[in-house]
């Protein structure tokens, strides 16, 4: 396993198709806590598993919406960081780059990345709980819970909750990129949550080379040809400069 920007830059320069998987770590420098950080403030007594599930929503939609509204608020205040921006710029410097993100914050798109595959959805969109379509919300109803403007059912955040399936289109596109790529960049993810964590394994089985960018070691580190052991906001601009 090599370390260092020159090795990573050399692999990126010669890659035919780069598949990138990002996790919460790439948004950490935008001030958005990762999942492995304890929930802070008002929500510190809850674990995501207690809030981001269909059961939690059915049991107490108000509490789940309050948590999501507070997360939406902090995401709206956040800005893409140099890591997001370098990744958007990298796409214009290589023949083909497919970006798959586990993040629901939309910061890749705000940084200029296109064709982002949102593997776990997007927190800023509402989805009708009956029609299962992305909808504009009607005004709040009597219980001041947001409802669908076309059928009046409750709306929910358009994200994947624990125990739910990955959106079919995202799964298909991400699998195709992992199967076809010759270089896989794993950035800011603990590589613990499947099926997202399986994408790197798919790429490795097909003979792709893996680069990991993460200040901490993960289960994927030993399989990586190059590890950039540091923050994405530093390492990605560094890779871009070294190209
Ligand atoms: P985690 O919180 O599990 O992992 C974040 C990773 O980012 C860790 O490995 C950190 O070491 C690393 N990290 C922290 N700061 C970083 C930085 N500045 N630059 C680069 N890396 C940094 O987040 P995810 O791996 O994204 O699923 O979690 C995967 C999924 O687990 C999430 O999408 C969510 C959660 O359950 C759903 O919501 C369905």
Explain briefly what this protein structure is.
The protein is α/β, with parallel strands linked by helices and 243 residues long.
Structural class, from helix and strand content? alpha/beta
Give the overall silhouette: elongated
User: In CATH, what is the class of the domain at 1-31 and 80-120 and 165-243?
Assistant: Alpha Beta
In DSSP terms (H or I, runs of 4 or more residues), the helix count works out at 10
Q: So, the CATH homologous superfamily of the domain at 1-31 and 80-120 and 165-243?
A: TPP-binding domain
Largest sheet entry: 7 strands, parallel
Uncertain stretches of 5 or more adjacent residues: none
- What gyration radius follows from the Cα positions, in whole Å? 19 Å
Widest sheet, order of strands: 1-10-9-8-2-3-4
Which architecture of the domain at 1-31 and 80-120 and 165-243 per CATH? 3-Layer(aba) Sandwich
Work out the strand percent.
15-25%
- Mean pLDDT, to the nearest integer, reads 92
Q: Distance between the terminal alpha carbons, to the nearest Å?
A: 20 Å
Tell me the series of helices and strands, N- to C-terminal: EHEHHHHHEHEEEEHEHEEH
Q: How is the CATH topology of the domain at 1-31 and 80-120 and 165-243 named? A: Rossmann fold
Helix content: 25-40%
Q: What hetero molecules are bound to the protein chains?
A: 2'-O-acetyl adenosine-5-diphosphoribose
- Based on DSSP secondary structure assignment, what is the total number of beta strands? 10
């Amino acid at each position: 396993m090599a370390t260092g920007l020159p090795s990573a830059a050399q692999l990126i320069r010669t890659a035919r198709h780069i598949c990138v998987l990002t996790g919460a770590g790439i948004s950490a420098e935008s001030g958005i806590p990762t999942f492995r950080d304890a929930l802070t403030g008002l929500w510190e007594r809850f674990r995501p598993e207690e809030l981001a599930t269909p059961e939690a929503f059915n049991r107490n939609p108000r509490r789940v919406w309050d948590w999501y509204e507070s997360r939406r608020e902090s995401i709206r205040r956040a800005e893409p960081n140099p890591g997001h921006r370098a990744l958007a710029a990298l796409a214009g410097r290589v023949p083909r780059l497919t970006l798959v993100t586990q993040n629901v914050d939309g910061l890749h798109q705000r940084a200029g990345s296109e064709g982002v595959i949102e593997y776990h959805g997007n927190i800023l969109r509402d989805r009708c709980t009956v029609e299962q379509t992305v909808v504009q919300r009607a005004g709040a109803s009597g219980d001041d819970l947001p409802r669908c403007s076309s059928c009046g059912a409750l709306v929910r955040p358009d994200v994947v909750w624990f125990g739910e399936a990955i959106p079919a289109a995202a799964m298909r596109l991400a699998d195709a990129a992992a199967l076809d790529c010759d270089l896989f960049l794993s950035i800011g993810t603990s590589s613990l949550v499947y099926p997202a964590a399986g994408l790197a394994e798919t790429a490795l089985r097909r003979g792709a080379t893996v680069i990991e960018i993460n200040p901490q070691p993960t289960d994927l580190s030993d399989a990586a040809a190059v590890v950039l052991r540091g923050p994405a906001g530093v390492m990605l601009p560094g890779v871009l400069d070294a190209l």
